[in-house]
Amino acid sequence: MHHEKRTFEFYVLAAFFALFVLFLYGPLSAVFILSFQGPNGGLTFPMNGASLHWFFNLFEKQAVGDFGASFSRSLMLGLMVMVVNVVVSLMAGLAFRRRFPGANILFYGTVASLVVPSIIISLGIGVVFNQLGLQPAWYSSAFGAHLTWTLPFGVLIMFAVFNRFSPSYEEAARDLGASSWQTFRHVLLPMIAPSLIGVGLFGFTLSYDEFARTLMTSGTYNTLPLEIYGMTTNVTTPVLYALGTVTTLFSFSVILMALLVILGLRRRAARA
C-alpha cells in the first residue's frame, strides 16, 4: 500500500513537472522555429521557407532598434552587478557570522526591497536623480536599481551557506599557524567558491533580464529588455524571433559555463 502511494505521488509530480517544462519551453520552441523563417516569412505559422536570413539581419542597420548597442549595455550592466553582488554578499555573509549593533535593521532594510513593487523603485530612483539635477543612465541609476533587486538574493544565499558552514575548518587552520588572510584564502574561499559563482550567476541573470527596474532609470539609451519591448510594437518581421533565439542561447551558455566552472572546482577539491 505504501509502495503504491509513493508510485502515485511520483507520477503526479512527474506529470506536474512535464506540464511545467511544456509551459516554460513551449513558447520558446515556437520562437526558435519561427526565427528560421525564409526571407519572405512572417510572424506566424506556417513557415515560408527556411533560412538564416533573420540572424544575419540582426547585424545590419535596423530602422526599429539597435540590437548591438543595447546588448552591450545589458552585458556590461550585468557584469557590473555581478561583481558588486558577489563582493557585497560575501562581505555581508562574513559580517553576519557575528552579532553587531544594528544587524537586524541592516538585514531587514536589505531584504525590504523585495516586497516593494519594482516599478515603484524604478520610478522613485528616476525622480530622485531628476530632483538632484542628474541624468538617469544605465550605468548609474539603473545600476543602483538592479542592485536593490539582486543584492537581497545574494545576501540570503550567503546567509544560508554560512549557516551550515562549520567553523572547525578555520579553527584547525589557525591552530596550524595560518593567519586570518591565509585561512580565508586557502580554507574558506575554496569551500564557498561554488556558492559565490552561483551568487554571481544569479546577479548577472537577474540584471540581464530586468525590465521594470530599468524602465525609469535607463535614461536615453535602452538595455536589451527595453529594446525588445519597444520592438514588439513596431516589428513586423521574424528578426525579433532571431533576437530572442540568440539571447536565449546566450543565457543558456552563461549557465553552462558556470556549471562547468563549479564542476571543475569540485573535481579540483576532490583531488586535493
UniProtKB/TrEMBL annotation:
Spans through the membrane: 12-36, 75-96, 105-129, 149-166, 187-208, 239-265
Membrane topology of the entry: Multi-pass membrane protein
UniProt domain ABC transmembrane type-1: residue ranges: 71-258
Protein location: Cell membrane
Keyword Membrane attributed: yes
Pfam families attached to this UniProt entry: BPD_transp_1
Predominant location category: membrane
Domain of life: Bacteria
Family of the protein in this entry: Belongs to the binding-protein-dependent transport system permease family. CysTW subfamily.
The name this protein goes by in its record: ABC transporter permease
Native species: Xaviernesmea oryzae
Lineage: Bacteria, Pseudomonadati, Pseudomonadota, Alphaproteobacteria, Hyphomicrobiales
